[in-house]
Amino acid sequence: MPAPDLYRARMKAASRARTNSPAPFPQAAGSNCSAHNCHSCDVRSLSLCDALADSELSRLDRITRRHRTPAGATLIREGDPMTFACNITSGTVRLSRLLHDGRRQVMGFLFPGDFIGLTRRNRFVFSAEAITDTDCCNFALEDLETLSKDNPRLQRKLYEMACSELDAAQEQMLLLGRKSALERVASFLLEVRQRQLQQGDDEDCIILPMTRGDIADYLGLTLETVSRSFSRLRQEQVIEICETYRVDLLDCPRLQDLSGNS
Hints:
The chain has helices at residues 3-19, 57-62, 141-149, 152-178, 181-198, 212-219, 223-235, 252-259, and strands at residues 64-69, 74-76, 84-90, 93-98, 104-110, 115-116, 127-130, 134-140, 205-207, 239-243, 246-249. By secondary structure, it is of the alpha+beta class.
């Protein structure tokens, strides 16, 4: 399909989905994670909730709406009004933007503990889609702003999260601007591994729920180039590809060297 036709097809599909979409601020009704609460959250130490003492969590709990999104469904659509912030508590989410000619740029991947909403824009400038079944906590922006005004530690945490996003954006600029294809793939694997280590996962196993096409669109490469890079890493016995979504890490120091990182 030619690129303009692809773009029109995608925009028509998005328009149909928008017509039937739920309210911009998802409610807890129908969620499968209603039993979850801030005190028992498994990713509390990784999220903005970490800034709050146990005695303060009840107030956050009162403004929280919990929502489950099945794999393949959309959490946020590009252009939707930005009326809420979102904290991922389980699952993996893909952030992407669609160019006018139908090309897609994957902006990043979100994991448990990640936060959406650190911007002053009135509308979302990206789409967020669940790669796996995903649970999240949503907060109306007005409620979250009121809570943060009363809690300096929460303000500090939001500031630190914004700084981390800026650091990640600068690293991505370096990756896209200067690194070779192999360096990009190696850097990506190390990035995912680091995120999974924060969650207490196996240090020698990297789970990749996203497709190779997703990885290609994130790294600014073609699908074929990503596949060749994985094959080279396997041939050099740096990794072992056990399944499409699972990579065993055989030589972490070598992978670090190949990433081009200091």
